[in-house]
Amino acid sequence: MPDASLALAPDPAVDLATRILIVDDDPGIRELTAAFLAGHGYVVDVAADGVEMRARLEQESYALIVLDVMMPGEDGLSILRSLDRSTSPAVIIMSVISEEVDRIVGLEMGADDYVAKPANPRELLARIRSVLRRNQAAASAAPSSGRPYLRFAGWRLDPVGRQLFDPDQVVINLSDGEFRLLLAFAEHPRRVLTRDQLLDLSRGLNAEHFDRAIDVQVSRLRRKLTRDDSLVGDELIRTVRNEGYMFTSDVERR
């Protein structure tokens, strides 16, 4: 990892109480990463594996976890799968650059972002800042009471509670990635969105573009939006050949 002196400019938006957890089986990487991030105003803890990570989560409240994928025993993807993404901290996964499938699967499972390993500390810092800003902006935009829902074709999406209700008011379980993708569609109805636009809207501008990841998530989201007595997912999310996807329903915010 490059020297910590290669630092980005201080971020005035950083809350000095922002706590980050580094989960990596390599003690050298753990400590270097922790020292670098601590030098930029974050409170940083470390864990060598899933067991230590869970113990830390019981003791402290974290804004973000940096999670290595390739670890012996319980790997990072298994750890990510075990987290409740509706209540857990944001997660940035680190994966060996050649293991593209790990990154795609991690994003599908709800990771907020990823960085190639060995991680350039400047890039990791930039991605951490981006994820935290995105989450902070979403929290600031959320009304404290009487919050509006996004309503379409009998469905109801709660942007604050991050829940989807079907026409019978049954909660439909969505992964973090599926929720953000549906939110992007519902906020841009009846518009053709390219895969690149969907990645930017649901993952942020720092996301690298993986068409396959979006296609897989769209397929899963369609299945969850399919009902016998209402519009099926394929009708709600229409494939526009050679362009992308379009959310076909009108959306009301109330």
Produce the secondary structure layout.
Elements: E1 19-23, H1 27-38, E2 43-47, H2 50-59, E3 64-68, H3 76-82, E4 90-96, H4 100-108, E5 113-117, H5 121-141, E6 150-152, E7 155-158, E8 163-165, E9 171-172, H6 176-186, E10 192-193, H7 195-203, H8 211-224, H9 233-236, E11 237-240, E12 244-247, E13 252-253
Parallel strand pairs: 1-2, 1-3, 3-4, 4-5
Antiparallel strand pairs: 6-7, 6-13, 7-8, 8-9, 10-12, 11-12
Helix pairs in contact: 4-8, 6-7, 6-8
Provide structural commentary.
By secondary structure, this protein is α/β, with parallel strands linked by helices. It contains nine helices and 13 strands. The chain has helices spanning 27-38, 50-59, 76-82, 100-108, 121-141, 176-186, 195-203, 211-224, 233-236, and strands at residues 19-23, 43-47, 64-68, 90-96, 113-117, 150-152, 155-158, 163-165, 171-172, 192-193, 237-240, 244-247, 252-253. The protein has a five-stranded parallel β-sheet, sandwiched between helices. A five-stranded antiparallel β-sheet has the order 9-8-7-6-13, with helices on one face. A three-stranded antiparallel β-sheet has the order 10-12-11. The longest helix has 21 residues, at 121-141. It is elongated. The N and C termini lie far apart (49 Å).
What is shown here, in short?
The strands form 3 sheets. Strands 2-1-3-4-5 form a 5-stranded parallel sheet, with helices on both faces. A 5-stranded antiparallel sheet has the order 9-8-7-6-13, with helices on one face. With about 250 residues, the chain is α/β, with parallel strands linked by helices. About 40% of the residues lie in helices and about 20% in strands.
